[in-house]
Design goal:
Blueprint (H helix, E strand, L loop, with lengths): L12 H15 L11 H8 L3 H13 L3 E4 L3 E4 L5 H19 L4 H13 L1
Antiparallel strand pairs: 1-2
Helix pairs in contact: 1-3, 1-4, 2-3
């Protein structure tokens, strides 16, 4: 498992890590039940603060992608659904792009509803 971060990116380091974990689950490189690298080891390999990795892991936990077991590490959840992870990621990208264009959430929802009828 190879992760990289770009310190010059406008995207936070934690979000970059979380995105790469999601992509690995979606592609099948990480499978349900697989253990993620310990936060300390990953932070050292990426040359970032351990709390940055922990923020990424917390984001993934909150999304239901991983579970964190006290003293045992972080694991891909058994019920992690690669398709749902991908759709969620695409929805987040849509929201980000639409907000850049000044669209409101109701306008975005209307756009999605219209797209569903096409």
């Amino acid at each position: 498992m190879l992760f990289r971060v770009d310190a010059s990116s406008s995207v936070s380091l934690a979000h970059q890590i979380a995105t790469q974990v999601r992509a690995s689950v979606t592609s099948g490189d990480l499978v349900p039940g697989e253990r993620l690298p310990p936060a300390r080891d990953l932070a050292q390999a990426l040359r970032v603060n351990m709390h940055t990795v922990l923020r990424a892991y917390a984001e993934l936990r909150d999304e239901g992608v991983i579970e964190m077991r006290q003293g045992r590490g972080a694991f891909v959840r058994q019920d992690a659904n690669p398709g749902m992870i991908r759709v969620t990621e695409l929805a987040a990208q849509l929201m980000q792009e639409a907000r850049k264009l000044g669209m409101t959430p109701p306008e975005i929802a209307q756009l999605i509803t219209r797209a569903d009828t096409v």
